[in-house]
Amino acid sequence: MSTPPQRVRVTRSRRPVRSVRRRTVREEIADESRLGSTYVNSLRRAQLHLSLGTIAVGLVTLGALPLLFALVPALRGTGVMGLPFAWVVLGLLVYPAVVLTARWYVRATERLEADFSELVSRR
User: What is the pTM of this model?
Assistant: First the structure.
């Protein structure tokens, strides 16, 4: 009887290992690949979501004012320091609120773009 062959443990192949270079996110976006398009579309979706949310808040709050004045007729006749109540609300409350909302929107948009830039430069 012949002896069985000795067992050999294989740990790696004898072929030279080729290093596979991963493409960066910038290259993916520049080449307009599917992954690059996904990155850009996610930024666009986030910006659209932010824009639509800001517009909705503005429409609801500004749209509620005529409704408030229509449903509560006593507000139409009242005045504050000689000015009609509607003018006070529009002049002293609405404009600062719009300015603050616009400032918040710009900062949120800049934050989204900074996060995207960080993602692009990270890889």
Answer: 0.68
